[in-house]
Amino acid sequence: MSERKFSVLPEHLGIIMDGNGRWAKLRGLPRTEGHKQGSETFRKIGEYAGNLGIRHITFYAFSTENWNRPETEVSAIMTLFDSFLTEAIDRLDENIEKGIRLHFLGDKSGISQELKELMDFVEDRTKHCNKMHLNLAINYGGRQEIIQAAKTLAIKARNGTIDPADINDEMFAQHLYTAGQPDPDLIIRPSGELRLSNFLTYQSAYSEFWFSDVLWPDFSEQDLDLALSDFEKRHRRFGGI
Ligand code: FPP
Q1: pLDDT per residue rounded down to tens, the chain (241 residues)
Q2: CATH number for the domain that contains residue 200
Q3: Count of domains in the chain?
Q4: What is the 3-state secondary structure (H, E, C) of the chain?
Q5: Is residue 217 included in any domain, yes or no?
Q6: Which residues line ligand 1 (CB under 6 A)?
Q7: What is the residue range of 190's domain?
Q8: 36 alpha carbon to ligand 1 midpoint, in Å?
Q9: Whole-prediction pTM
């Protein structure tokens, strides 16, 4: 049920979940504990955003560069991802009833076969849902996404399926992981870092940004409200006046 707290909501909200490691360090805990807490925040904020009526939300969970982290950390994040998928499957009927469609943005070929099968399963079972699109960017890189779209288009042009002269913004966007979804209107990055880190590189051309010093595990519904009330006041011009 929408709480209608805001006069304007982003149609698509992107969130870079950052600061898990520092959150753990501040408490003398292993970094993996930060990710564990971060995954709880992900559930909480995802649910809250859905209740507010945000129709598309993308969480950045794991980048193509995150494989460079120690093996223990990578495997802890994959275990959290596994738990999320298992929970999504356990609650499939409930999620379908709520109209939640799950999408995974990124290169699935780099993910273990077991996880890939679960990802394909939940994507397939929720593909008719249209109330809320919950995107999880995993093994995702904005440049990699653009390159794979360019390669697919080049192959189609070579095969004669498309005329290169017809390639435009719209056609290009249809070859991205976010095909069929609007560009993010607002991107939130907590933890004091002021960069995009290869997140939705193509789609963020006209996104608004909101930064906060709060570390992701501590990010609350009130923090999201602050971002949304700031967004409400932004005057978006899309290159016009
Ligand atoms: C960035 O914080 C966070 C990540 C690279 C992982 C994000 C993962 C989760 C929130 C949990 C996974 C959830 C699912 C559902 C897969 P950082 O580790 O770079 O933090 P730091 O900058 O403080 O070190």
Answers
A1: 445 799 999 999 999 999 999 999 999 999 999 999 999 999 999 999 999 999 999 999 999 999 999 999 999 999 999 999 999 999 999 999 999 999 999 999 999 999 999 999 999 999 999 999 999 999 999 999 999 999 999 999 999 999 999 999 999 999 999 999 999 999 999 999 999 999 999 999 999 999 999 999 999 999 999 999 999 999 988 888 8
A2: 3.40.1180.10
A3: 1
A4: CCCCCCCCCCCEEEEECCCHHHHHHHCCCCHHHHHHHHHHHHHHHHHHHHHHCCCEEEEEEEECCHHHCCHHHHHHHHHHHHHHHHHHHHCHHHHHHHCEEEEEECCHHHCCHHHHHHHHHHHHHCCCCCCEEEEEEEEECHHHHHHHHHHHHHHHHHHCCCCHHHCCHHHHHCCCCCCCCCCCCEEEECCCCCCCCCCCCCCCCCCEEEECCCCHHHCCHHHHHHHHHHHHHCCCCCCCC
A5: yes
A6: 17-22, 35, 38-39, 42, 61-62, 66, 77, 80-81, 84
A7: 12-233
A8: 9
A9: 0.96
